[in-house]
Amino acid sequence: MHPAEAPVESGWHRIHIGRQPIHDSEGALVAYELLFRSHPQAKGATARGAEATSQVIVNAFSEFGLERLAGPHLCFINLTREFLVGELPLPFDSGSVVLEVLETVTIDEQVIEGVRALAEQGFAIALDDFVGNGHERLLEVASYVKLEVSGIDPELLRERVKACRAYKHVHLVAERLETEEDLALARGLGFDFFQGYLLGRPRVLSLDTLEPSRLRHLELISKLTDEATDFQEITEIITCDPALSYRVLRAANSAAAGLWQQISSINDAVVILGTRRLRHWVTLMLLSDVVGADAGQEVDNDRMSHVLMRARLCQLLSRSLGLPSDKAFTVGLLSGIADLLGVHPEDLIAHLSLSSDVSGAIVDASGPLGNVVSTARAYESGLLPESATDGSDDLAHAYLRAVDWSMNIISNV
Question: Taking the model in full, what pTM does it have?
Answer without folding.
Answer: 0.72
